[in-house]
Design a protein that fits this description.
By secondary structure, the protein is α+β, with helices and mostly antiparallel strands. The chain is built from ten helices and twelve strands. The strands form three sheets. Strands 6-7-8-5-11-10-9 form a seven-stranded antiparallel beta sheet. A three-stranded mixed beta sheet has the order 1-3-2. Strands 4-12 form a two-stranded antiparallel ribbon. A hairpin with a 2-residue loop joins strand 2 and strand 3.
Length: about 290
């Protein structure tokens, strides 16, 4: 009846006034909601900060800040020339190589050329002191079939023959470069046969996103353990990595391991004269203890 409908509306209004608007709009589990919204496009660690200040675009499996909502070009220029400007480059993909140094250099020489400048074997880069950059080509096809530009960092030597190399590639180039690296090192076998973390998280998320909605009652998570339910973890991975596939491969013949570390190793770029000062204030050196 009309009276009952008016009564229901009145009760709803009375209940809505008990909490502020911010509290009423807050999700019961923010992490579960954020994971749900990242099913197609992964967020960077700085996504919330950028989403409030930038026009966001969906590219390469990520949600990225494209242009500021306010006219902050002068402020950015001032920061670059006089202070410090930070950029989040975590959408760049990191490919990690592990194995004997001689074997790594032997095969990597096939996909680059000394004619273009630096190579993976350059002394200053090989020591781990400096980052290098070069163009990669399909194995033994230089100067044809260029794959694209990359940057790389060697982990400093620790006295062992085994070395560790990180190659940073643009997400649009990752699949081609990863395929070529797996081919030259003969890495076809998954290092670990296991279900990757994003799959486990998505299953937890589906259980927790299911809610019971009724007038005058809060949304409750559907979980057998009720209040003892384990909180949903943040998604680890990136938009270019299939959660159903392995992300680490090993070669039984060369002993080389290739791992996809995208979004596991974050990357930031600092520009400006005060960049070094900002880093020294933000980071404190750990005390080295020798056994």
């Amino acid at each position: 009846s009309k009276k009952q409908a008016e009564k229901a509306v009145h009760q709803k209004k009375e209940q809505s006034k008990t909490k502020c608007r911010k509290a009423r709009r807050r999700h019961i589990n923010l992490v579960a909601e954020f994971n749900h919204r990242q099913k197609k496009n992964i967020w960077l660690e700085t996504h919330i900060w950028h989403a409030k200040r930038f026009h966001m675009v969906k590219k390469w499996g990520y949600c990225l800040g494209n242009s500021p909502t306010e006219k902050s070009y002068r402020a950015c220029y001032r920061a670059m020339t006089k202070h410090c400007l930070l950029q989040d480059l975590s959408y760049y993909c990191c490919l990690e190589l592990k194995g004997k140094e001689n074997e790594l250099l032997k095969q990597l020489a096939r996909i680059c050329s000394i004619d273009t400048g630096l190579t993976f074997q350059e002394a200053c880069c090989l020591s781990g002191r400096f980052e290098g950059s070069l163009n990669l080509y399909r194995a033994d096809h230089y100067p044809e079939d260029m794959l694209g530009p990359v940057t790389f960092i060697w982990k400093p030597r620790d006295g062992s023959e085994d070395r560790q190399l990180w190659i940073w590639v643009h997400p649009a180039l990752k699949q081609d470069i990863l395929r070529e690296l797996k081919a030259i090192f003969q890495c076809s076998e998954p290092e670990e046969i296991c279900v990757t973390e994003p799959v486990t998280i998505s299953m937890q998320e589906e259980k927790q996103v299911e809610v019971v909605t009724s007038l005058g009652s809060k949304r409750k998570k559907e979980d057998k353990e009720g209040e003892k339910a384990v909180p949903v973890k943040k998604i680890i991975g990136d938009g270019t990595r299939d959660p159903f596939q392995s992300y680490s491969w090993i070669s039984r013949t060369t002993g080389i391991t290739i791992s996809d570390r995208s979004m596991e190793i974050l990357r930031y770029r600092l520009i400006g004269p005060l960049s070094h000062s900002v880093l020294t204030e933000a980071l404190k050196a750990a005390s080295v203890q020798t056994v």
